[in-house]
Amino acid sequence: MNALAHSIALAPLLGWPAIAALAALGALLLGFGILRRARGLWWRFVALAILLAALLNPSLVTEERSPQRDVAVVIVDQSPSQNIGDRRQATAAALETVKQRLARERDLDVRVIEAGQAQPGAVDDGTRLFTALNRAMSDVPRQRLAGVVMITDGQVHDVPTGDAKALGQALGAPLHVLLSGKPGEGDRRLVVAQAPSFGLVGKQAQLKLRVEDLPEADAKKPAGEARLTWRKDGGAPRQVTAPVGKDFPLMVPIDHGGPNIIELEVEAGPRELTLVNNHAVVVVNGVRDRLRVLLVSGEPHTGERVWRNLLKSDPSVDLVHFTILRPPEKQDGTPIRELSLIAFPIRELFDVKLDEFDLIIFDRYSRRGVIPQAYLENVARYVRNGGAFLEAAGPSFGTPMSLYRTPLGSILPTEPTGEVFEEGFKPELTDLGRRHPVTAGLPGAGAPAEDPSWGRWFRQVEAHAHRGTIVMSGEHGEPLLVLDRVGEGRVGQLLSDQMWLWARGFEGGGPQSELLRRLAFWLMKEPDLEENDLRAAIEGDRLVISRQSLEPDDHPVTVTAPDGASRTVTLAAEANGRSSASLPITQMGLYHVTDGTRNALAAAGPLNPIELADVRTTPEKLAPVVAATGGGVFWVGDGPVPAIRRVSPDRPAAGHDWMGLRANGDYTVIGFGETPLLPGIAALLLILGGLIAAWRSEGR
User: Fold this and answer.
1) Which pLDDT value is given to residue 205?
2) pTM above 0.85, yes or no
3) Rounded Cα–Cα distance for residues 215 and 617 (Å)
């Protein structure tokens, strides 16, 4: 309802200094008259007062005012910590009560803002209620804000800091906090105090962990111990005993490149609000310091440079290359002192430092007595213990000088027949080769019924494959490239020395660089080149599951969400031995995917969110702002919702069982009128009348 308001306004006809000077002069004259006891002095004072009033030009201002409704903002915390215990129910009940009571106020607009929900891909910045409040009040003048009510557990991570008085002035209205939990809560949590982002493959990474029982126990009392269970990449669980309240180290092995996911879990404590923060996940990316490769060429030949150029082109590879230029059986009478060759450091390479190499390549090496049988047995042992070995066979592999007739024959997947084909042929991918990551999708391979577009080779050693996977075939469909796993290591065998023709561009060349790169990294267990593997990754707001397999596999996978809920997913077949599926992300945390044999993990959002670092209900974080604004803190988790009152801006805004919202009385002016109180003619007549009255008084 509109209202009228009246006030007096001045619009001086002269400047204030001139009016002040005139008033001072008049006062002097009147003072002089008082000293002389002159007659008519009162009428002169009246005339002077009317003159000064006329110069001030007063007017009566009338405003028609439209009252503005005040605004109350209710911020509802919807963060994950609100799911603990009965907090969600207490929050809903408090919100409903507050809305009902505010609805009774006719001159109040209510804005309810829900904040703190976890979003896929969001930055781990915790519960940001004040950010939501600032957005809600962006179009509300501070003089219309009646107050703010926050329904939360008190775990707010964007509380303004600084001078308390300045905080109160910035908000401009009382802040009331309704706590959804209960006082005196206790909880156990697992804290990752320090964790490296990267670790060297083959080494161990140290994590610094701490188990805390909150609130912290008395320092005089023993804190005790807790059982900690950890597993890596979804593998078998391992247990250690951890002290409570103290940092302790945990060493974890980094055994492969790429993400190494370590899951940690501590047993429940004596007081628990939730077991969610008893878990933690750490991702350590495995990187290889320097890849050490030993390349032994049995004799100088054209293809030797292909291997050398490929390995030297990668700055992460340390290459040790020896070419046997003068075998022991060569006797030409040349004096030793005239030879510039260096001795082959056999013992140092194949005994002392053998395990330091990530990959060993024998290129056209034959059994010529250079490397003793005992050292070749060391190489076989090296492979069985997890090493990588590649043989690029030359014509000698089909002779009695073959490596197959040495201790290395126990790890080689093929047995030579003694035949060597020296007719032109085009290497082709086998059916398994089209599904194996080493050879799948090689440029120029063509469709299964088409001839490859790359150039021909002109030599192949015939051999029978007793084990392993044949990924490329050559002349007469015989094995050309065979891959095998031996013990914990891997072996590759290329039954031709003609790859240099591709490097030279013969008949268009071929993808020798890509093939050799994939082959070398598969031998060194690069995760992306696993031929039978299950993978999971977060892409945007979806969980992408992919499976690589040599044989068609239509078995469904089981996806377990962070809250423990499981569902079955069928993967759709794609090219090159891949099948995949994707799911929308509905929760933040770690997703487990398994097909019964293999496991995969994918983390959505922050792995250890600060939202769950401390889940106890607390008034401490918001207390400074509440005190600065004159608001109040109320526990509604186990108590009633306080009453709501409208109070004047200069009155207290909170009591024991009530919270106040300011009645600001703000308005807008919709009508305006101005009436002069002393028009010029009326002022002139009054001044003349006063002077005449003074003159007559003096003339008596």
Assistant:
1) 92
2) no
3) 12
Among 6-15, 76-85, 253-262, the least confident range:
6-15
Which DSSP letter does residue 218 get?
P
Cα 175 from chain centre: 32
pLDDT digits (tens, 9 = 90+) for 144-185: 888 999 999 999 988 887 776 777 777 888 999 999 999 988
Q: State yes or no: cis peptide before 215, omega within 30 of 0.
A: yes
Q: Is residue 322 within 8 Å of 296, Cβ to Cβ?
A: yes
Of the chain, the end-to-end C-alpha distance in Å amounts to 61
* Amino acid symbol at 81: S
> Position 146: which residue type?
A
Contacts of 161 (CB under 8 A, 6+ apart): none
Please list, residue by residue across 626-644, b when 16 or more beta carbons sit within 10 angstroms of its beta carbon and e when fewer do.
Answer: bebbbbbbbbbbeeebbeb
Nearest to 549 by CA among 525, 576, 522: 576
Which of 595, 631, 625, 591 minimizes the C-alpha distance to 607? 591
Closest of 129, 140, 121 to residue 175, by C-alpha: 129
What residues have CB less than 8 Å from 188, skipping those under 6 apart? 211, 212, 213, 214, 226, 266, 268, 269, 270, 271, 272, 277, 278
Helix (H) or strand (E) holding 447: none
Structure tokens at 434: 């089209």
Kindly report the length of the chain.
700
CA distance 484 to 468: 4
In 10 A of CB 244, how many CB atoms? 19
Nearest to 422 by CA among 477, 383, 476, 461: 461
Token code pair at residue 618: 């607390």
